[in-house]
Amino acid sequence: MNIQSKLASVYIVLLSIGVIVISAYAILSIRSFLYDEAVQKFESDAQTFAKSLETEISNQDLFDKVEFMSDLTGYNVALFDEAGSLIVYAPFDESQFTDSREMMNDDLQADLAGDRTQVILNEESLDKLISFHRIEVNKSDARYLRISQLKEDLYAAEASIRHLIYGAMVGSILVVVIVSFLFARYLARPITQLKEAALEIAEGNLDREINLNRNDEFGTLAETLNQMAGTLKADNEKLKNLNEKQNQFFADIAHEVRNPLHTISGAMEMLQMENLAAEKKSQYMATAQKQIERVVRLFEDIKSLQRYDLDASFINKSKFDVSAVVKEVVKTYQPIATEKGINLKVIQIEESIVDADEDKIEQVLDNLISNAIKYTNEGEIKVKCVHHGNEVEISVEDTGIGIGEEHLERLFDRFYRTDKARSRDKGGTGLGLAVVKGILAAHQREIFVESKPGEGSRFYFSLLTEKEQA
Fold first, then answer.
1. What ranges do the domains of the chain cover?
2. What is the pTM of this model?
3. CB under 8 Å, gap of 24 or more: what pairs does 410-417 form?
4. Domain 217-307 has what CATH class?
5. Which of 20, 129, 302, 363 fits a 20 to 30 Å CA distance from 255?
């Protein structure tokens, strides 16, 4: 079977099923609607009839009243007295009382004795819809009204509608057959070309180009497949690079954990030596403690980065003066910088109210200033907080060892170090700048760096002031 026949067959089957399903649904919906409407009208009529009997009516008038109700609506109408005995009914047909459930009984009287004034019998086993209604006290003996209607009478209108739908359904299927063959013939020509091209792309020939020279949807599809092939080619390169980075990431984690664990293991072995001097014991204890803290910092940074990747709502914003945070962080690191012989100072500070996560911004400043101290052997570190229009720019500039241009592009990657040996000796985890980038990204901000080897580095970022955010 060729593609044209397959397409035609599929369209005919699917559209025919659709037409049949829609027609069946329409019939069932109409049937259900008519039935529900009839039941509601039946209940309403029963209430109306019962109210009409709660007037000054005598026993002599009951038959005329019941006969009038029956002629008017076509219902079977019957009245019962207080004991549940039949008084009068119309039309005169004793067969309507052959089933005991159609007669007034003790259960029905009990149901109608309280607040409930109406009982509807709508059981599948009964071919009738029956309503029993209590009649309030009047001058006649009638205390209960019963009306009934054959269920098949409820669907009288539905039968003619169903025939119309069947006729429309048959006509629709004939139209579907004709249109399906014509449409399949039109579709078959370019589909073969697209199929062959798609198979080549699926087999890995991403340089395959489709030329249909058409201005319709097939021409658009051909262009889309060409674009898809190009995108897949680019994505393959990205996935390859991502896989390499992921492998490197896990290798770096293993390496970062292995080194301190070896150091801790060695320290523990030395501590087990007999007659170890107290001074040496303290030294090995301090070494082990330092390496444990390093591992803890490593996993805390990894945990933070995981939150930045998976939880977009980890930022808790509030309004605060970022200049005060800058001063506080500088004050914290002042003794460390002084001990190393570095002049850490704030050379320009302006009060700036921002709407951000104060703790996270403090963590950013902490990482930037601590990095500046680590990689600056002499000279100074300048911290600025200045306004530029509706933004406040915060920068940390040092006179340290600087960073080569070849490293700037990957500087904020996880575990990336420009000099792995020296960085590890300084106690870093290789995640500090990645954490900085993640925090600022969560604030829709970026971190920038300017650096030259031997001349120092300048890290800076900006935050929107309260005026701009408002």
1. 3-157, 217-307, 312-469
2. 0.43
3. 411/449, 412/436, 412/437, 412/447, 413/245, 414/249, 414/252, 414/305, 415/248, 415/249, 415/252, 415/253, 415/256
4. mainly alpha
5. 363
